[in-house]
Every structure is written in C-alpha cells, then in structure tokens.
What does this fold into?
Amino acid sequence: MNEKRAITLMRGISALAIFLPMLWIAWAYTPVPLLITLGIAASLVSIRIGQAGEARYGRRVQVTEMLPLGRKGDKQMLIGGIAGYLMIVFFGLAAWLAFHD
It folds into this structure.
C-alpha cells in the first residue's frame, strides 16, 4: 500500500469515527451536535485554505476575500469562502435549534 492511499484510508476512518456517532445522536435525539461538528469542520477547511493562500498572495486570505478570488479563477479560494460561510450557517442553525422552543 502506498503512502497516499494509507493517508486517505486513515482520513476516511477518522471521519467515520467522528461523524457516525454524531449522525446517530442527530437521528435519535437532536441534530445540534452534528451541526456543531459540521461547523467546526467547515471552519478548519476555511482556515487551512486561508493559510495556503499565504504562499500565493503573500498574506493570509480572509473569508470575505476568498469568494472574489474564487470568481477570478482560484478554485481553492472559492471552496474556502463557501466553507467559511457554511460555518456561519451551521453554527446559526445549531444555536437556533438549541434555543428554539
């Protein structure tokens, strides 16, 4: 097994170990922990892409700048911008579901 395939396998197992219990809790009780987990995952993706933008643009790229850069053809920045805004949506939904009567 080559190194890239082993890393992909480990990432897949780790993702299943994190998200399967969250899916069970969401199915049985409330989707709030799943939404929080998805929000954290989206924020980590956005942060990582913003840091990778430092090599291309000489500075860390903010989420508000990622979408315009993505429209100019930088697909990674587009994904980072979408992930940043999805983070807000996931956390907002989690808060609304947690405190809604």
About this structure: The chain has one domain: 22-99. The helical segments are 3-28, 32-57, 63-71, 75-99.
